[in-house]
Design goal:
homodimer; 342 residues; alpha+beta; Hypothetical Oxidoreductase Yiak, Chain: A, domain 1; Ribosomal Protein S8, Chain: A, domain 1; 2 domains; seven-stranded mixed sheet; three-stranded antiparallel sheet
């Protein structure tokens, strides 16, 4: 692997300009209008927020998944009301994000009325960062916790073989200023997208990140990608969380576990045909008013700073977003070339 | 610290015998009948399950918390129906477990009817292992996730001062054989009770467990207890989970954050006056039938074994329980002496 990405920005685009460009690419590869819109907005927003591993870098994957036929770009999500606090969404073998968007208004209404709601999205291919899935709920004044299982990359604690996906979880709560406090983290010692970026950039990974194909510790991202495996973060505790996420993503939604995803009949496909669960809670049911709740969040944020935590989770994302609003989204030369090819 | 616990069993008691003995101790220290029953059953069950850090070892703490007046042993929990999927419980400055038991039947009914339910227990002192709080819900066929915040012991990532509690989380799902698959883990690199046991036994702790009072890494459990701090497991990711748990335990329930617990006016008190949140999900709303869901859990358990995970989370607990059923619960000589003194 000798390719490397240039970091020289070739062009600055506004968010709407970038969305329009990505939308055209999606449409050219056979998605419906609404799917193109949802995916393009999501991918452009990830790039705006400074996520190299979930932004434009993923466009080639979107396209090859669609081309392979593994993902249905014209799927129409089916939303089912399963109880006053439970929504089931069948993504119809399409991407997860359009299903999430289709269910979002009803999920918010249910949470406000019942106090809590679970949205279980099955038969779905998740792509894009999880923080963009929880953020709108927190902007609506709700607490949101989401997990998604993915393709098998992570050995269970003490094991020697891939079993779990990198299985991210994201959590978001509203703040007093209308902003959102959130974190989004892979249960793997490193996110799959970050391993891919490190491989492209020829960077070595920290110890404890993964095993090579023979089950030995390695710091080569390429060795992990070539039949090796990632470790869970934090030993057996991270491994237990990965298990929980495979259960909530796979079993609860009636979808594949990470280790059951099989795209071998679809050359070029690398997406995870799995499930996503979003747990929503209305904080006003627990603590009187939204203002009281967000006031408590500010108390905690202040205490975090006093205890010496110099950077809040999600702070980098907000800084990138602010910069993009001021000067546009910087597109690197290499990426720009790739996008034009698509 | 030169004291050490003898591990020689002095006596074997059945679960009902041990419960009766603990109940008498609780009543002698001023609890109501129902509180005595709930706490004695919970503490004896933890001991039966082999939890040294949450079993009889904690009885002295129960008693001194009650004696100090920090915890109300006669509190009557108030349960409020806040929505079809939200129950609020005010533990009335009593222990959390009686509030959980009072709310449990309604919480199960709501979950089966609505598909999900949040139980937010505030104004509470949690004691005992979290797995005993989630296990009955999974035995009733539900998915249960519970978190509780506690007294401040853990520095946030990159910080130098205690902020979060050891903030455990427990997760349980039903299995096909009527058993439960669960895990229960502190977000701290080590549970507070385990640090106390290590201090009593003069054992050193692994690197990365904590800091001493001057903020330097230490392997002495006593240095951590004497004004030092624990680290979160898994670096910044564990720290983010600790934050989430302080929000769900403290802010959602309208209770103290871990760093706000203050028992200084109650000499001898060491309990956490905080909150506990339990998220319940009915898996039949997501996947058709309980049998289908538990079938998927068995699939995953088999895959875990195939991938080389030789021990399931919670397996040690079930083995201890089985042994206790066969030969009784072994009470060590030193513990037996302490119990008789109480």
């Amino acid at each position: 692997m000798t390719a490397s990405l240039s970091h020289e920005p070739a062009i600055y685009l506004s968010l709407p300009e970038l969305i329009a460009m990505l939308e055209a690419i999606m449409l050219r590869h056979g998605t419906s209008d609404s799917v193109a819109r949802a995916l393009a907005t999501n991918c452009a927003s990830a790039e705006r927020d400074g996520s190299r591993s979930h932004g434009l870098f993923r466009m080639a994957g979107y396209v090859s998944n669609l081309k392979s036929g593994f993902v249905d770009g014209r799927a129409v999500p089916q939303i089912q009301d399963a109880g006053t606090a439970f929504l089931r969404a069948d993504a119809g073998n399409g991407y997860a994000r359009p299903a999430l968007e289709a269910a979002m208004p009803q999920a918010i209404d249910k949470t406000r009325s019942a106090g809590a709601c679970v949205l279980a999205i099955g038969n779905a291919h998740h792509n894009g960062p999880l923080w963009l899935d929880v953020e709108p709920f927190a902007e609506a004044g709700l607490i949101a916790l989401s997990v998604v299982n993915s393709v098998t990359y992570v050995v269970p604690h003490g094991g020697h073989k891939r079993l779990y996906g990198t299985n991210p979880m994201a959590f978001a709560v509203p703040r007093a200023d209308g902003q959102v406090l959130l974190f989004d983290q892979a249960t793997a010692a490193m996110a799959h997208g970050e391993v891919k970026v490190a491989a492209l950039e020829n960077k070595l990974l920290p110890e404890g990140t993964g095993l090579d194909a023979s089950g030995l510790p390695t710091s080569s991202p390429q060795a992990i990608l070539d039949g090796g495996a990632l470790l869970a973060f934090g030993g057996h505790k991270g491994s237990s969380i990965a298990m929980m996420i495979d259960i909530l993503g796979g079993a609860l939604t009636g979808s594949n576990f990470s280790h059951q995803v099989n795209s071998s009949a679809y050359p070029g496909a690398d997406s995870a045909h799995t499930g996503q669960t979003i747990i929503l809670i209305d904080p006003t049911k627990g603590n009187g008013s939204l203002r009281m709740f967000t006031g408590r969040i500010e108390e905690l944020v202040e205490a975090m700073a006093e205890a010496g935590q110099t950077r809040l989770p999600g702070e980098r994302r907000l800084a990138a977003r602010k910069l993009a609003a001021e000067r546009g989204i910087a597109i690197e030369a290499e990426t720009w070339k790739q996008l034009q090819a698509l």
